[in-house]
Give the backbone structure.
Amino acid sequence: MDWQAIALSLRLATVTTAILLLVGLPIAYWLTFSPRRWKFLVEAVVALPLVLPPTVLGFYVLIAIGPRSPIGALYSRLTGGLLPFSFEGLLLASVLYSLPFMVQPVAAAFAAVDRKFLEASWCLGIAPGATFRRVLVPLALPGIATGAILSFAHTLGEFGVVLMVGGNIAGVTRTVSISIYDQVQSLDYAAASETSLFLLAVSFLVLALTYALQRRILSVWPAN
Amino acid sequence: MSCSTRHPAKLTVAAAADLNFAMEEVARQYRATHPDVELAIAYGSSGNFHAQIRNGAPFDIFLSADIDYARRLATSPADVFPYAEGRIVVWVPGGSPLDPATALRAPTLRRLAIANPDHAPYGRAALTALRGMGLYDTLRPKLVLGENIAQTFQFVQSGAADAGIVALSLALAPKAKGTGVYWEIPHSLYPRLEQGGLILKDSPAARDFRALLLSGAGRGILERYGFALPAAAAGGY
């Protein structure tokens, strides 16, 4: 089994989930509570990775971060490095690719929180930022956990985007799904099924955990 | 009631990615002489096709980039027909300051794209050539691997990699002409890239396709698109 690829995928999924928690929660908050009429446009953009083939996303990301694009050129000037075929480039693509998996469950959880709690907090003079941290987030925790788990699992299983922008460098961009693909291509079907089985088991565990959380079999907050 | 109307025959060809452009022209000639045959060509990686065919994919003909994959699927080795040999070139996009003949030694080269040597024959050839030139150790940290030779070419064309070792057939493709410059790597530096085909489901339509590919006209097309011709393909069929 290709442990290096498994370790890389776990690292990519962890960092992607962490970034998505930072980015996704404010977006979900804005989508839930903003009075703007055009927010459906933002909702559509956030949901695009759900319907776009990963090849489209990967193709655009590769061009967008290449040295001929403004983003790629700026990154190159700032860091001296190149975004395509790097872990950072892969991370950027993964964050975009998994964005709806974080934002949608969190936005749904925010919307399900009883407005009375939030209004009570505001009326008691608690600032919106503190209300967000101390009232909204704790009440929406199961939804946030679902978003985090789904983002993690989705990144772990990412294939098309990585294939398009990764360049298959061992330890840098060769994720577990690419490794399995390589094993099939090299006609090494035994190794491919071994790694596939591992990924299947991990994915099942992650999804089982998600549904257990949703049914609140496992409580994510301490009982009192 | 008799069933006298002849159903149009169907012919599905699984072709290696490097055949992409040459095969369109072969197909055009085939369709002209066989209007009753519905010809479909799927392009992809030979390794993928191997796995799919082993698991019952309904292809009539398999044109592999690696003759070995065709041999593994054949019941008898005599069924495999060599049809072409691939060549490799160093390709850099137009406007790049790199010269393809010296790009591999240039210190400004940051990323070199090659096909994955673990399974793509063009990748293996590229690796052997780099070793033969004594450049493998310096270039190893700069290598990015394409899934097949067409993707490797796309990595360079998009500018994401500075240079690439790709198939001559892609460098000569109509869509690539004028977008870059290439330098042909001397044949002595890499093993022969023998490409071989196999009829998976025998039919007159399939045999005609093989005959066209191995005929003077077929060989002419392949040669124009940057393939060398295998000596063994001259007779037999």
Remarks:
- Confidence is low (pLDDT under 50) at residues 1-5, 232-237 of chain B.
- The CA atoms of residues 125 and 191 of chain B lie 6 Å apart.
- The beta strands of chain B are 9-16, 37-44, 61-64, 81-86, 88-93, 112-115, 143-146, 163-167, 180-184, 193-199.
- Chain B has two domains: 9-85+193-234, 88-184.
